[in-house]
Amino acid sequence: MKQFCEKAWDIFNSDRKQSKLISLIFYILFVLILCAGYYFASKPYLSFNFFINSGEFIRVIEILPALVLIISACIFFIPDKIEGLTHLYWMLFTLLSAIPILVVYVFSGIAYNKNVLIYIYTIEILCIIGMYLVSKFDIKFPDLSLRKKYFWMFMILFIIVAYGYLFITLGLPKNIKLAFTGDYYTVRLNYRNSVNLFGDYFVQWMGNVVNPFLLTYFIYKKKYKFMTIPIFLEVILYIYTAYKSLFLILILAPFFGLVLNKGINKSFIQKSIVGVVLIALVDGIVSVGKQFHMFNSKPLSLLNHYPSYYWVYLPIMVRAFLWPSLIALEYYDFFWMYPKVKLSHSVLRHFFSNVYKMEPSLYLGALYYGKPEMRLNVTWYGDAYMNFGIIAMIVFALILYFILFAIKYVEKKNVCLVASLLFGGIVTLFNGPLLTTLLTGGLGIGLFLAYLLPKDI
Questions:
Q1: Do 227 and 218 meet the contact criterion of CB atoms below 8 Å apart?
Q2: Is position 385 within any domain?
Q3: Which of 72, 208, 291, 334 lies at 20 to 30 Å from 142 by C-alpha?
């Protein structure tokens, strides 16, 4: 068992360089799997707007230069061994957004006659510039580190204020049975109806930033008997909200922090992603065949006993890789024709009027899917275009570059603990607006705490 664990860890910790040709093959294979994934989604998920429109060959020619550029940037600008959040972010952004949006456009052709190529190429170029800047430059920021004693005094006070405010405004957590017996939507509805703005901030900040940091710190320092403290604090938040993502962040933040502390091979990420989407594709193919009675011959009839109905395909291939890019194209499709939102749904709503009289995510959910409750959240570039167009995409990208440079600077203190502070915000950034992620998602407060983090912690 010990030898097995050592070999498994070598996958993360190996210093061996992967040849650029092998890396290129993995990216090409990834693109082909996504293409097959979209093709099979067009049958069971037409309600998700997974249409296939004619003209695929022309659209392939249109996006081929962008695909070549983005893959080349990944191969040359992202180091073979990733030891920080900034390179990891651009690696995952490429795999989760920059490449999938090209695949989705080829098949769907959405906004084909609306200059959508300007939108797509802007995304790819901004991604490439971001990778290049992070790989070649550093910015030195003022040192704001606190002494260890004062840092922990501040953290304890922050926790007391946050949970005290929640107890005062929401009462003591009582819906324990509802939260843990499957009636999640009732709990979430009660929470949304009763929580105020600052209460929601404290829930997100504690759940996405502080509690994962505490758990990582206790693991990092081998103070295992204190691990129950952040877990208990997270359970309190879950009883209020029934947000399962709270536990996901709590588990993954220490994992990624400890892995980045040792360094993770780019090749491992490539192999893992390709392996996961390949498993999802196989699950989707078999599920489609089973649902639409395609396994009539005797050898294939055994597949009718396959237990899954898109259990892997739906959450991974559709929801994680393809649908977010489809939503981003739908945002462009709508706001290319109609007035921009101009931050009228944000904290600046008092300065701008919202012509749509409701949140954009709800409005587009109703328009494109007939279900406003779907809340079509979009990542930072879609949100930027929705507000002010292509210019805003460039401005928001500059803000993102600055944030990533700040992260690159502070993670030199202790990449493990800094990663645990920022992981929740970085995850939110993949499917949420930049400004919202900074404030509500906890990226801003996480970066602030990372700056206060003592160097000798």
A1: yes
A2: yes
A3: 208
| Domain limits for position 322 | 1-137+263-452
Whole-model pTM: value is 0.89
CB 347 within 8 A of CB 126: no
- Within a domain: 415: yes
> pLDDT of the chain along its 457 residues, tens only?
345 444 544 544 444 556 888 999 999 999 999 999 999 998 888 888 999 999 999 999 999 999 999 999 999 999 999 988 999 999 999 999 999 999 999 999 999 989 999 999 999 999 999 999 999 999 888 888 999 999 999 999 999 999 999 999 999 887 776 667 766 777 887 888 899 989 999 999 999 999 999 999 999 999 999 999 999 999 999 999 888 888 889 999 999 898 888 888 898 899 999 999 999 999 999 888 877 766 666 565 666 666 767 889 999 999 999 999 999 999 999 999 999 998 877 666 666 677 777 888 888 998 999 887 677 889 999 999 999 999 999 999 999 999 999 999 999 999 999 999 999 999 888 888 998 899 888 999 999 999 999 988 7
In whole angstroms, what is the distance from residue 411 CA to residue 433 CA?
Answer: 23
Which residue's structure tokens are 């819906």? 175
Buried b (16+ CB within 10 A) or exposed e, 193-211: eebeeebebbbbbbbbbbb
Is residue 166 in some structural domain? Answer: no
Q: Would you say residue 250 lies in a domain?
A: no
